[in-house]
Amino acid sequence: MMQDIEYSSPEEIRQFQDTRLREALAYLNTSSRYYRRLFERYNVNIGNIRHVEDLVSIPFTEKKDLQLFNEDFLCVPQHKVIDYITTSGTMSDPVTFCCTEKDLQRLAYNERKSFECAGLRPGNILQLMVTLDKRFMAGMAYFLGLRELGASVVRVGNGIPELQWDTISRIKPDSIMCVPSFIPRLMQYAEEHGIDYRKSSVRKIIGIGESLRNQDFSLNLLGNQIKSKWDVELYATYSSTEMSATFSECEYGVGGHVHPELIIVEIIGDDNLPVPDGEVGEVVVTTLGVEGMPLLRFRTGDICAKIVDKCPCGRNSYRLTPLVGRKNNMIKLKGTTLYPPAMMDVLNNTPFVSNYVIYVKDSKQGTDEVVVKIGLDEEYVSQNARFREHPEEIINEMKNRFRAHVRVAPEVSVAPVEEIRAINFPQSARKPVKFVDLRQKH
Fold first, then answer.
1. Averaged over 280-287, what is the pLDDT?
2. How far, in Å, CA of 60 to CA of 67, rounded?
Protein backbone atom coordinates (compact mmCIF):
# COMPACT_ATOMS: atom_id res chain seq x y z
CA MET A 1 0.00 0.00 0.00
CA MET A 2 1.39 3.42 -1.01
CA GLN A 3 2.22 5.76 1.88
CA ASP A 4 -0.17 8.64 2.42
CA ILE A 5 1.69 11.75 1.26
CA GLU A 6 0.44 13.66 4.31
CA TYR A 7 2.79 11.61 6.50
CA SER A 8 5.83 12.30 4.31
CA SER A 9 8.40 14.93 5.25
CA PRO A 10 7.59 18.60 4.53
CA GLU A 11 10.29 18.65 1.84
CA GLU A 12 8.84 15.55 0.14
CA ILE A 13 5.38 17.14 0.23
CA ARG A 14 6.74 20.35 -1.36
CA GLN A 15 8.47 18.40 -4.14
CA PHE A 16 5.34 16.33 -4.70
CA GLN A 17 3.17 19.45 -5.01
CA ASP A 18 5.66 21.08 -7.37
CA THR A 19 5.39 18.07 -9.69
CA ARG A 20 1.59 18.02 -9.52
CA LEU A 21 1.47 21.76 -10.19
CA ARG A 22 3.52 21.40 -13.39
CA GLU A 23 1.16 18.63 -14.52
CA ALA A 24 -1.87 20.82 -13.78
CA LEU A 25 -0.43 23.76 -15.73
CA ALA A 26 0.32 21.59 -18.75
CA TYR A 27 -3.24 20.25 -18.69
CA LEU A 28 -4.74 23.75 -18.47
CA ASN A 29 -2.56 24.95 -21.31
CA THR A 30 -3.81 22.22 -23.63
CA SER A 31 -7.42 21.81 -22.43
CA SER A 32 -8.77 25.08 -20.97
CA ARG A 33 -9.84 27.86 -23.30
CA TYR A 34 -10.00 30.28 -20.40
CA TYR A 35 -6.51 29.63 -19.04
CA ARG A 36 -4.88 29.34 -22.45
CA ARG A 37 -6.26 32.79 -23.18
CA LEU A 38 -5.06 34.08 -19.78
CA PHE A 39 -1.54 32.71 -20.35
CA GLU A 40 -1.37 34.44 -23.74
CA ARG A 41 -2.79 37.73 -22.48
CA TYR A 42 -0.37 38.02 -19.56
CA ASN A 43 2.63 36.39 -21.31
CA VAL A 44 2.77 33.57 -18.80
CA ASN A 45 5.33 30.94 -19.78
CA ILE A 46 4.22 27.89 -17.83
CA GLY A 47 7.67 26.40 -18.30
CA ASN A 48 8.93 29.01 -15.84
CA ILE A 49 6.43 27.93 -13.17
CA ARG A 50 8.44 25.15 -11.50
CA HIS A 51 7.51 25.56 -7.86
CA VAL A 52 4.46 26.55 -5.82
CA GLU A 53 6.20 29.82 -4.92
CA ASP A 54 6.26 30.73 -8.63
CA LEU A 55 2.47 30.95 -8.71
CA VAL A 56 2.66 34.63 -7.70
CA SER A 57 3.46 35.47 -11.35
CA ILE A 58 0.02 34.22 -12.48
CA PRO A 59 -3.13 36.39 -12.16
CA PHE A 60 -5.92 35.29 -9.82
CA THR A 61 -9.16 33.67 -10.93
CA GLU A 62 -12.25 35.20 -9.32
CA LYS A 63 -15.91 34.23 -9.06
CA LYS A 64 -16.86 36.87 -11.58
CA ASP A 65 -14.58 35.11 -14.12
CA LEU A 66 -16.48 31.88 -13.58
CA GLN A 67 -19.70 33.80 -14.01
CA LEU A 68 -18.72 35.61 -17.21
CA PHE A 69 -16.79 32.82 -18.94
CA ASN A 70 -18.33 29.73 -17.38
CA GLU A 71 -18.21 27.47 -20.46
CA ASP A 72 -14.60 28.39 -21.23
CA PHE A 73 -13.46 26.72 -18.01
CA LEU A 74 -14.70 23.31 -19.19
CA CYS A 75 -11.74 21.15 -20.27
CA VAL A 76 -13.55 18.09 -21.65
CA PRO A 77 -16.14 17.37 -24.35
CA GLN A 78 -19.73 17.75 -23.11
CA HIS A 79 -20.41 14.02 -23.35
CA LYS A 80 -17.81 13.33 -20.63
CA VAL A 81 -19.79 15.37 -18.07
CA ILE A 82 -21.49 13.03 -15.60
CA ASP A 83 -22.85 15.49 -13.05
CA TYR A 84 -23.85 19.16 -13.14
CA ILE A 85 -23.51 21.26 -9.98
CA THR A 86 -24.19 24.91 -9.26
CA THR A 87 -22.77 27.31 -6.74
CA SER A 88 -23.53 30.94 -6.00
CA GLY A 89 -21.69 33.62 -7.96
CA THR A 90 -21.00 37.30 -7.36
CA MET A 91 -23.80 38.27 -9.77
CA SER A 92 -27.40 37.17 -9.96
CA ASP A 93 -27.04 33.79 -11.66
CA PRO A 94 -25.32 30.73 -10.15
CA VAL A 95 -22.16 29.23 -11.62
CA THR A 96 -22.32 25.78 -13.20
CA PHE A 97 -19.66 23.19 -12.40
CA CYS A 98 -19.26 20.07 -14.51
CA CYS A 99 -17.88 16.83 -13.08
CA THR A 100 -16.57 13.86 -15.05
CA GLU A 101 -16.42 10.28 -13.82
CA LYS A 102 -12.80 10.92 -12.81
CA ASP A 103 -13.87 14.00 -10.86
CA LEU A 104 -16.49 12.02 -8.93
CA GLN A 105 -13.87 9.40 -8.10
CA ARG A 106 -11.54 12.17 -6.92
CA LEU A 107 -14.38 13.63 -4.85
CA ALA A 108 -15.01 10.26 -3.22
CA TYR A 109 -11.28 9.87 -2.46
CA ASN A 110 -11.16 13.34 -0.94
CA GLU A 111 -14.15 12.77 1.32
CA ARG A 112 -12.92 9.32 2.32
CA LYS A 113 -9.66 10.88 3.51
CA SER A 114 -11.52 13.61 5.37
CA PHE A 115 -13.81 11.14 7.11
CA GLU A 116 -10.80 9.02 8.04
CA CYS A 117 -9.21 12.16 9.48
CA ALA A 118 -12.34 12.60 11.62
CA GLY A 119 -11.95 9.05 12.90
CA LEU A 120 -14.55 7.20 10.81
CA ARG A 121 -13.82 3.64 9.74
CA PRO A 122 -15.63 0.81 7.92
CA GLY A 123 -18.54 -0.24 10.11
CA ASN A 124 -19.39 3.23 11.38
CA ILE A 125 -22.92 4.50 10.66
CA LEU A 126 -23.28 8.20 9.81
CA GLN A 127 -26.60 10.02 9.61
CA LEU A 128 -26.32 12.61 6.84
CA MET A 129 -28.37 15.73 7.61
CA VAL A 130 -27.47 17.41 4.31
CA THR A 131 -29.46 17.63 1.09
CA LEU A 132 -28.42 15.54 -1.90
CA ASP A 133 -30.62 17.41 -4.36
CA LYS A 134 -30.90 20.98 -5.75
CA ARG A 135 -27.64 20.65 -7.73
CA PHE A 136 -25.72 20.66 -4.44
CA MET A 137 -22.24 19.10 -4.39
CA ALA A 138 -21.77 18.56 -0.65
CA GLY A 139 -24.38 15.90 0.12
CA MET A 140 -23.40 13.77 -2.87
CA ALA A 141 -19.70 14.19 -2.08
CA TYR A 142 -20.21 12.99 1.49
CA PHE A 143 -22.23 10.00 0.31
CA LEU A 144 -19.56 9.02 -2.21
CA GLY A 145 -16.82 9.35 0.40
CA LEU A 146 -18.63 7.24 2.98
CA ARG A 147 -19.33 4.62 0.33
CA GLU A 148 -15.65 4.47 -0.62
CA LEU A 149 -14.63 4.34 3.03
CA GLY A 150 -16.91 1.38 3.65
CA ALA A 151 -18.97 3.13 6.32
CA SER A 152 -22.75 3.08 6.33
CA VAL A 153 -24.75 6.21 5.53
CA VAL A 154 -28.32 7.17 6.43
CA ARG A 155 -29.54 9.85 4.00
CA VAL A 156 -32.12 11.83 5.96
CA GLY A 157 -31.49 15.32 4.57
CA ASN A 158 -31.58 18.61 6.45
CA GLY A 159 -33.98 19.88 9.10
CA ILE A 160 -37.04 18.11 10.59
CA PRO A 161 -35.86 17.20 14.13
CA GLU A 162 -38.72 14.70 14.52
CA LEU A 163 -37.52 12.68 11.53
CA GLN A 164 -33.88 12.93 12.66
CA TRP A 165 -34.67 11.49 16.10
CA ASP A 166 -36.95 8.81 14.68
CA THR A 167 -34.08 7.72 12.43
CA ILE A 168 -31.56 7.77 15.27
CA SER A 169 -33.95 5.62 17.33
CA ARG A 170 -34.49 3.13 14.51
CA ILE A 171 -31.02 2.79 12.97
CA LYS A 172 -28.76 3.91 15.84
CA PRO A 173 -26.02 5.78 13.95
CA ASP A 174 -22.85 6.51 15.91
CA SER A 175 -22.13 9.73 13.97
CA ILE A 176 -24.10 12.59 12.47
CA MET A 177 -23.10 15.28 9.95
CA CYS A 178 -24.90 18.62 9.80
CA VAL A 179 -24.67 22.38 10.12
CA PRO A 180 -23.57 22.91 13.78
CA SER A 181 -26.25 25.49 14.61
CA PHE A 182 -28.87 22.79 13.96
CA ILE A 183 -27.60 20.78 16.93
CA PRO A 184 -29.08 23.03 19.67
CA ARG A 185 -32.42 22.81 17.86
CA LEU A 186 -32.04 19.03 17.79
CA MET A 187 -31.27 18.97 21.52
CA GLN A 188 -34.17 21.29 22.31
CA TYR A 189 -36.61 19.06 20.43
CA ALA A 190 -35.28 16.04 22.34
CA GLU A 191 -35.71 17.80 25.70
CA GLU A 192 -39.27 18.87 24.84
CA HIS A 193 -40.25 15.33 23.79
CA GLY A 194 -38.60 13.30 26.52
CA ILE A 195 -35.70 11.99 24.40
CA ASP A 196 -32.49 11.45 26.38
CA TYR A 197 -30.00 12.40 23.67
CA ARG A 198 -27.08 11.82 26.05
CA LYS A 199 -27.93 8.11 26.03
CA SER A 200 -28.50 7.94 22.27
CA SER A 201 -26.22 6.02 19.92
CA VAL A 202 -24.59 9.24 18.65
CA ARG A 203 -20.97 9.68 19.76
CA LYS A 204 -19.56 11.94 17.04
CA ILE A 205 -20.78 15.11 15.31
CA ILE A 206 -19.09 16.38 12.14
CA GLY A 207 -19.99 19.99 11.42
CA ILE A 208 -20.17 21.63 8.00
CA GLY A 209 -20.61 25.24 6.87
CA GLU A 210 -20.04 26.80 10.30
CA SER A 211 -17.11 26.92 12.67
CA LEU A 212 -17.00 25.19 16.03
CA ARG A 213 -13.70 26.72 17.14
CA ASN A 214 -11.93 30.01 17.65
CA GLN A 215 -8.65 30.91 15.96
CA ASP A 216 -6.72 29.42 18.91
CA PHE A 217 -8.63 26.13 18.36
CA SER A 218 -10.62 26.42 21.59
CA LEU A 219 -14.32 25.69 21.21
CA ASN A 220 -16.34 28.79 20.33
CA LEU A 221 -19.63 29.66 22.03
CA LEU A 222 -21.63 27.27 19.85
CA GLY A 223 -19.11 24.47 20.32
CA ASN A 224 -19.16 24.97 24.08
CA GLN A 225 -22.96 25.10 24.12
CA ILE A 226 -23.12 21.69 22.44
CA LYS A 227 -20.25 20.09 24.35
CA SER A 228 -21.48 21.27 27.77
CA LYS A 229 -24.79 19.47 27.31
CA TRP A 230 -23.87 16.54 25.06
CA ASP A 231 -20.56 14.75 25.59
CA VAL A 232 -19.84 13.93 21.95
CA GLU A 233 -16.73 14.24 19.80
CA LEU A 234 -16.91 17.43 17.76
CA TYR A 235 -15.19 17.81 14.38
CA ALA A 236 -15.28 20.86 12.12
CA THR A 237 -14.75 20.82 8.36
CA TYR A 238 -14.14 23.43 5.68
CA SER A 239 -15.06 22.92 2.03
CA SER A 240 -16.41 24.60 -1.07
CA THR A 241 -17.69 23.56 -4.48
CA GLU A 242 -14.91 25.44 -6.28
CA MET A 243 -12.18 23.65 -4.33
CA SER A 244 -13.68 20.19 -4.86
CA ALA A 245 -12.06 19.41 -1.52
CA THR A 246 -12.85 19.17 2.18
CA PHE A 247 -10.45 19.84 5.04
CA SER A 248 -11.39 18.05 8.25
CA GLU A 249 -10.00 18.27 11.74
CA CYS A 250 -8.40 15.19 13.23
CA GLU A 251 -8.97 14.06 16.80
CA TYR A 252 -6.65 16.80 18.11
CA GLY A 253 -8.83 19.61 16.71
CA VAL A 254 -5.98 21.92 15.69
CA GLY A 255 -6.99 22.84 12.16
CA GLY A 256 -8.39 21.33 8.98
CA HIS A 257 -5.91 19.03 7.24
CA VAL A 258 -5.13 19.91 3.62
CA HIS A 259 -4.65 16.96 1.27
CA PRO A 260 -1.51 17.81 -0.78
CA GLU A 261 -2.38 15.50 -3.67
CA LEU A 262 -5.67 17.32 -4.27
CA ILE A 263 -5.08 21.03 -3.78
CA ILE A 264 -2.53 23.81 -3.33
CA VAL A 265 -3.49 26.53 -0.84
CA GLU A 266 -1.99 30.01 -0.70
CA ILE A 267 -2.86 32.57 1.97
CA ILE A 268 -2.83 36.03 0.42
CA GLY A 269 -2.65 39.43 2.13
CA ASP A 270 -4.14 42.77 1.12
CA ASP A 271 -1.13 43.35 -1.16
CA ASN A 272 -2.05 40.16 -3.09
CA LEU A 273 1.16 38.48 -1.95
CA PRO A 274 1.49 35.43 0.31
CA VAL A 275 1.54 36.22 4.04
CA PRO A 276 3.92 34.49 6.48
CA ASP A 277 2.70 31.13 7.78
CA GLY A 278 0.41 31.62 10.75
CA GLU A 279 -0.87 35.02 9.61
CA VAL A 280 -4.47 35.54 8.53
CA GLY A 281 -5.26 36.19 4.86
CA GLU A 282 -7.48 35.15 1.97
CA VAL A 283 -7.56 31.50 0.91
CA VAL A 284 -6.46 31.07 -2.73
CA VAL A 285 -6.61 27.57 -4.19
CA THR A 286 -5.25 25.65 -7.18
CA THR A 287 -7.01 22.34 -7.71
CA LEU A 288 -4.98 19.24 -8.57
CA GLY A 289 -6.32 16.27 -10.50
CA VAL A 290 -9.62 17.88 -11.51
CA GLU A 291 -10.54 16.90 -15.07
CA GLY A 292 -13.74 18.79 -15.86
CA MET A 293 -13.24 22.33 -14.54
CA PRO A 294 -9.89 22.76 -12.75
CA LEU A 295 -9.11 26.15 -11.23
CA LEU A 296 -5.82 28.04 -10.97
CA ARG A 297 -5.23 30.56 -8.16
CA PHE A 298 -8.94 30.87 -7.38
CA ARG A 299 -9.79 33.50 -4.77
CA THR A 300 -12.27 31.92 -2.36
CA GLY A 301 -12.93 35.09 -0.36
CA ASP A 302 -12.51 33.06 2.84
CA ILE A 303 -10.19 34.38 5.55
CA CYS A 304 -8.00 32.13 7.73
CA ALA A 305 -4.35 31.20 8.40
CA LYS A 306 -2.03 28.34 7.45
CA ILE A 307 -0.41 26.22 10.18
CA VAL A 308 2.71 24.34 9.05
CA ASP A 309 4.04 22.65 12.19
CA LYS A 310 3.59 18.88 12.50
CA CYS A 311 0.21 17.85 13.89
CA PRO A 312 0.18 15.56 16.95
CA CYS A 313 -1.61 13.00 14.74
CA GLY A 314 1.61 12.58 12.73
CA ARG A 315 0.58 14.34 9.52
CA ASN A 316 3.09 16.82 8.09
CA SER A 317 0.72 18.45 5.61
CA TYR A 318 -0.22 22.01 6.52
CA ARG A 319 -3.54 22.82 8.15
CA LEU A 320 -5.99 25.72 8.00
CA THR A 321 -7.32 27.52 11.05
CA PRO A 322 -11.08 28.00 11.50
CA LEU A 323 -12.46 30.60 9.12
CA VAL A 324 -12.57 34.14 10.43
CA GLY A 325 -15.18 35.02 7.81
CA ARG A 326 -15.49 36.07 4.18
CA LYS A 327 -13.45 38.99 2.89
CA ASN A 328 -16.42 40.73 1.25
CA ASN A 329 -18.47 40.39 4.44
CA MET A 330 -16.03 42.24 6.69
CA ILE A 331 -17.82 44.83 8.85
CA LYS A 332 -16.44 48.02 10.36
CA LEU A 333 -18.74 48.77 13.29
CA LYS A 334 -17.93 51.70 15.56
CA GLY A 335 -14.22 51.42 14.74
CA THR A 336 -14.10 47.65 15.27
CA THR A 337 -13.47 45.13 12.50
CA LEU A 338 -15.56 41.96 12.73
CA TYR A 339 -17.09 39.25 10.58
CA PRO A 340 -20.63 37.80 10.64
CA PRO A 341 -19.57 34.37 12.03
CA ALA A 342 -18.46 36.02 15.30
CA MET A 343 -21.88 37.66 15.66
CA MET A 344 -23.66 34.46 14.71
CA ASP A 345 -21.74 32.58 17.39
CA VAL A 346 -23.15 34.97 20.01
CA LEU A 347 -26.69 34.65 18.65
CA ASN A 348 -26.51 30.86 18.38
CA ASN A 349 -25.55 30.71 22.05
CA THR A 350 -28.33 32.99 23.34
CA PRO A 351 -31.16 30.92 24.86
CA PHE A 352 -33.97 33.41 24.24
CA VAL A 353 -33.14 33.74 20.51
CA SER A 354 -35.16 31.35 18.34
CA ASN A 355 -33.88 32.66 14.99
CA TYR A 356 -32.24 35.77 13.59
CA VAL A 357 -31.01 37.69 10.57
CA ILE A 358 -28.12 40.18 10.40
CA TYR A 359 -28.37 43.18 8.07
CA VAL A 360 -25.44 45.42 7.19
CA LYS A 361 -25.93 48.62 5.18
CA ASP A 362 -24.23 51.92 4.46
CA SER A 363 -24.79 54.76 6.92
CA LYS A 364 -24.96 58.47 6.15
CA GLN A 365 -21.56 58.83 7.80
CA GLY A 366 -20.02 56.43 5.27
CA THR A 367 -19.49 53.63 7.80
CA ASP A 368 -21.27 50.30 8.25
CA GLU A 369 -24.61 50.14 10.02
CA VAL A 370 -25.57 46.75 11.46
CA VAL A 371 -29.09 45.73 12.44
CA VAL A 372 -29.82 42.37 14.02
CA LYS A 373 -33.41 41.13 14.01
CA ILE A 374 -34.18 38.35 16.45
CA GLY A 375 -37.15 36.04 16.84
CA LEU A 376 -37.81 35.11 20.45
CA ASP A 377 -38.18 31.75 22.11
CA GLU A 378 -41.52 32.62 23.69
CA GLU A 379 -41.46 29.74 26.16
CA TYR A 380 -38.07 30.82 27.51
CA VAL A 381 -39.15 34.46 27.72
CA SER A 382 -42.43 33.60 29.49
CA GLN A 383 -40.51 31.67 32.16
CA ASN A 384 -38.06 34.53 32.78
CA ALA A 385 -39.59 37.11 35.14
CA ARG A 386 -37.09 39.80 34.17
CA PHE A 387 -37.93 39.57 30.48
CA ARG A 388 -41.64 39.01 31.09
CA GLU A 389 -42.02 42.13 33.22
CA HIS A 390 -39.52 44.31 31.35
CA PRO A 391 -39.45 43.34 27.63
CA GLU A 392 -36.91 46.09 26.92
CA GLU A 393 -34.41 44.06 28.93
CA ILE A 394 -34.29 41.54 26.08
CA ILE A 395 -32.65 44.14 23.83
CA ASN A 396 -30.30 45.26 26.61
CA GLU A 397 -29.24 41.68 27.36
CA MET A 398 -28.61 40.97 23.68
CA LYS A 399 -26.45 44.08 23.31
CA ASN A 400 -24.51 43.20 26.47
CA ARG A 401 -23.76 39.76 25.05
CA PHE A 402 -22.42 41.32 21.85
CA ARG A 403 -20.23 43.75 23.82
CA ALA A 404 -18.85 40.92 25.94
CA HIS A 405 -17.78 38.81 22.98
CA VAL A 406 -17.18 41.12 19.99
CA ARG A 407 -16.61 44.41 21.92
CA VAL A 408 -19.34 46.38 20.11
CA ALA A 409 -23.14 46.15 19.96
CA PRO A 410 -25.20 46.53 16.79
CA GLU A 411 -28.77 47.79 16.69
CA VAL A 412 -31.10 45.01 17.86
CA SER A 413 -34.84 44.64 17.23
CA VAL A 414 -37.41 41.90 17.79
CA ALA A 415 -39.47 40.48 14.92
CA PRO A 416 -41.94 37.58 14.64
CA VAL A 417 -40.28 34.18 14.35
CA GLU A 418 -42.32 33.44 11.21
CA GLU A 419 -41.11 36.63 9.52
CA ILE A 420 -37.46 35.79 10.17
CA ARG A 421 -37.95 32.16 9.15
CA ALA A 422 -39.22 33.34 5.75
CA ILE A 423 -36.01 35.35 5.35
CA ASN A 424 -33.82 32.47 6.55
CA PHE A 425 -35.37 29.93 4.20
CA PRO A 426 -36.39 31.47 0.86
CA GLN A 427 -37.57 28.93 -1.69
CA SER A 428 -34.60 29.47 -4.00
CA ALA A 429 -31.88 29.07 -1.33
CA ARG A 430 -30.06 25.84 -0.48
CA LYS A 431 -28.51 27.24 2.69
CA PRO A 432 -30.12 29.29 5.47
CA VAL A 433 -29.85 33.05 4.84
CA LYS A 434 -28.72 34.62 8.10
CA PHE A 435 -26.63 37.51 6.75
CA VAL A 436 -27.92 40.11 4.28
CA ASP A 437 -25.42 42.65 2.90
CA LEU A 438 -27.16 45.77 1.60
CA ARG A 439 -24.02 47.88 1.16
CA GLN A 440 -23.42 49.47 -2.23
CA LYS A 441 -19.67 48.87 -2.12
CA HIS A 442 -17.81 45.94 -0.62
1. 96
2. 14
